[in-house]
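Subject: Predicted fold for Aminopeptidase N, 918 residues

User T.R. writes:
Posting the sequence so we have a shared reference for the thread.
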Amino acid sequence: MRFIPQGLFVNVVCSLFLCNCFIFRCVRIEKKNMQFFTITKISSIFILKIKLYKVNMRVKFFFSMLLITMLLGCGDSDSRMVLQPGVSKKLAQERAGLIGNLSYDIRFNIPKGCNEKVDGYEIITFDFKRDLGQVVLDFTGDASSIKNVMCNEKEIAYELINEHIVISSKYLKKRGNRIAIKFLAGDQALNRKDDLMYTLLVPDRARTVFPCFDQPDLKAYFKLELDLPKGWTAISNASIADSVTTSGSRTTFKFQQSDLISTYLFSFTAGKFSKAQKEIDGKKYAVLYRENDAKKVAQNLDSIFYMVDYSVRWMERYTGILYPFQKYDLAIIPFFQFSGMEHPGSVFYVDSKMFLAESATQPEKIARAELIAHETAHLWFGDLVTMPWFDDVWMKEVFAGFFADKIVKELFPSVNSDLQFLIAHAPKAYSEDRTKGTNPIKQRLENLNLAGTMYGNIIYHKAPIVIRSLEKLMGQYAFQNALREYLRTYSLGNASWGDLVKIFDKHARFSVKDWSKSWVESAGMPIYAYDVYYKDSVGCGIVLRQKLPSEIRLPYLQLIEFTKLVHHKGTSQSALLGKKGGKEQVLIFPKCRRNNDCFIPNSNGFGYGYFELDSLKCASIVRHYQNLKNPVHRASCIVTLYENMLNGNFDGKSMLALLVRVVEYEKNELLISMSLDYLLSANLYFISKDDAATREMVECSLWNAYSHTNDNKLKIQYLRTIAKVMHSEKSARKMHEIWSHEVVSDNRWIGEMDLQNFAFELCIRMPEESSSILNVTRKSIKNIDNLRRFNFISQAVDPKKIVRDKLFESLLHLENRKQEAWVADALKLLNHPLRNDESEEYLAKGLSILPEIQQTGDIFFPKNWLSSLLYGHTSADDYAIVCGYISKEGKSISPSLLSKVYQCSDLLKRSTSIASKK
Ligand SMILES: [Zn+2]
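User M.O. replies:
I've generated the structure tokens; pasting them so everyone works from the same file.
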């Protein structure tokens, strides 16, 4: 972005050029090695354009200074609005002060074929608080996409500059302006198929579909009309009005006016859906879905309605605010690229996480409840009160996640909620926070077109841990009262983290502003080291020290618990670290027996950070692991040991041996699930490829665990892990036997998606049988959406390299990446660990299109693309390719994209570094 400084004095150069003091706008467009500046006079008397091609630096500097001088001389603030592509922060801030009483009346004609264009027509109504300057709408369509622009009933001239429609204020009045635009909608965010489409406009995709003021703090009322092929149905933010008409082969749906919402929350989905409705104690819910397995639908729908209603009522009780929107409908969409999206009135969910198989595991059931509660909590945090700018997008995510955890705790009373919280958040938060690519929870954002890169595990998993810690420090009632005040104060409006911190500070007994500086506004995490000392008269003590990253001046304030274990008994002590700037704390434990005690750092999992252990401390924890009665202590030990393994303090083989022991003997399903995830990564990155004995030991233990349980929910977890790690022919044959029996069975205990995934893994191990494996699987698939996915991904496991190469090459082109979830799955199989010799050439090419992936993909896609691309590449040569890319392109790609590269290559970096030291 270019920021043009303000100035009041009239410059001589300016007066020479512009004696009438015209309003000027400066636009700088950069295209590869071509640059040109355009100076345009808005008053339409004349347009002066100076184009400079391949100018040298001196000439560029001269003209830059000249332009700045002219602007300093006579521009008002409108003229300084920098019109760069996207929505710049500067543009958004200026516009927020000018536009009021905003509403959109929009009509879309959706043709039957998904390759035909969508016609759109809209009337934007608003007040405008300025006589001078211009009004700037956002729209990414080109000139041919805009058919006609009318302003206050007159056809007018406009300019199309860098994804903006610019209209002179001379056509505008103070109140009730009506801009009517006929346009062709862009397809990028319409997710169209022949019998289904849905919008996904977060964070700044509304402007790809229709001209609008695409920023979260210009909330508006939307009135939608959809002209659809006959037989389609639709939902949107508001209910369908009475005037639904049918003529010929088309149906028109007219919706009522929506509630006051931001553009990124405007939504509709249309297509061939089944519909179900439910009323629970006076609240009505409706769901659109495409799953055609009647048994599966019957098994799941009631639970879905129940959890939606439970979450709504829980949020009403906690916030003291009744459900704030007209209705709560759901659309369950196949292969939706997110897990869910919280559009008021039409909340979208991905079908794979909603319609669970009969064999669904406890973590899957909890994940579904968590997802429903998360999206529902957003209706208050995000939808009712919205961040003014996407740099605070983390706020809506953290509170949605925070309340989801509380709601799930009640929905699953038998589940250990502290364990669930630790397992759900800590491993994922550390997976990014330990890397060079970590970022503060609150990030800077200069342009909305980079908002997608704000999302990640820091927002979704570190922030909930940090906010839970804040609640513990403040006390739950003070915390709840502050949140209630925040929601009441800013209802239907916008509020930033700064606004909330001010309210927190009124309710807390410490400075939340200071707390925020280290936890929210700084990147990275605290590192803790500790020493144990013994004094016969007192017992023993732990000196816990906090090492601060150099850029952090204030220590991290948090409560940390240590547990001392003697035989089977544990005693716990907590320390408040960081109080009044202190970086050290002593915990006293009475009755210590020298060398016989085991200390577990962060035993309750409430603390956040890296707890550094030496080899003796690691060995002591491993030795005492089986004596730990509390599952939270066991989980916390595994997390701490794994982090120490990644830092070279604990051997990979010993880690794997512990995980195998856990998998074989652990009874807690959540702990088994977490250990299997860690086992996969330790096995892939920290065991040598030649270490056949360890690999065999892992496979044997997993099969043992599989055969010793009768619980299908556990069996499926073991099978999923075996499918990924199996090396021996014996394992592959055993897996094939199970798969071939299930895939043709009418009474399956393994879900369809698992069977497809097992088939892909088997094809890689049994290339000579791959075509029959794929054919049998294909015949077993009853759902058309699943069949489409299967056919797409099958190409990635073809035994012929030439077929896989062709698929990979096709993924480099945007038109073949429309189904991003499928693309990520296919790319992962193309880069399978067993084929990494043949896929090494994909690495450099896949990395080279990252900026395009960022520009064209949905918010989670850049990271998904990278994770899939790097999956299976574990050698020093592979890491050298990544390093080569970083040194060549690191400075030219956006910092947030570079950070994703660091995050996704962190395990590869650590494994090569540890291997090189051996
Ligand atoms: Zn969310």
